[in-house]
Amino acid sequence: MRFSFWPQPTQGYEDVSALASHVERGGWDGIWLADHFMPNAADTSAPWPEAWTTLSALAISVPRLRLGTLVSGNTYRHPAVLAKMAATLDHISGGRLVLGLGAGWQENEHHKYGITFSTVAGRLARLEEACQVIKGLFENTSYSFEGKYYQLAEAPLEPKPLQSPLPLLIGGGGEKVTLRIAASYANEWNVWGTVETLTRKMAILDRHCSRIGRDPGDVERSAVALLFLSDDQDLIKKVTANPSRPAIAGNVNQVRDTIAAYAEAGVDEVIIPDFTLGSGFTSAKTDVLDRFIEEVAPVAR
Known about the structure:
Number of strands: 12
Order of helices and strands: EHEHEHEHHEEEHEHEEHEHEH
């Protein structure tokens, strides 16, 4: 199993870069960035560096970690432009990029930036076309596409990504459409969730794969959950009682058991945000990250 880190998106580049270097030295496998432009809140004044620009800088300063967006909103960029960005960053990073893509959901930034915000069905339809466009550009010398939302006329994409294929990760847990899109196009799939959530949704993903004749093993699976590494059992009961905030919570032994359960369920990667660990590059945060990777992660490696 891989273990990756997700820094809070409101942290400045200096802190994100320092955290990325720390987790790389500590033996983590990857770093993921949220592709949004502002908080999903009434107060939108918090600093929020742009994800793809930040990843480009990290590709140079952090030479080993896998790099990815969790996830890019398809509505923010034409998929042909995004494919060009991803292929370029794959070269900059020496073949370490994962292109994380989702339908887009954060309504406030669409309205404030003047980006069209369609219905759920409309955004999912655009996502499916975008997957075809991106994969078509990666796999063909030139690619033409005539969709409802996107059109390409013998479009080139050179240089091709270093990786073949460059992993396309689809993020989201919608069981009827999103998981079908993941089954059809994704190399990896991600969702927030507990072991129980992942177990149920992975079975649905497997069924979508079977319907189209694809080996379910071709799609890697990753989970995100908040980390509470603590001996405070009252806190543990409180955070695990909130189903809207999936949590990996407990003392070292309890968290180790949870990670072992993810591995047993077939999860290939666990992504740990620092959202519960405070802001900035602090010893309190890095101590928790180090304890997790040194004392918990070996149970699934």
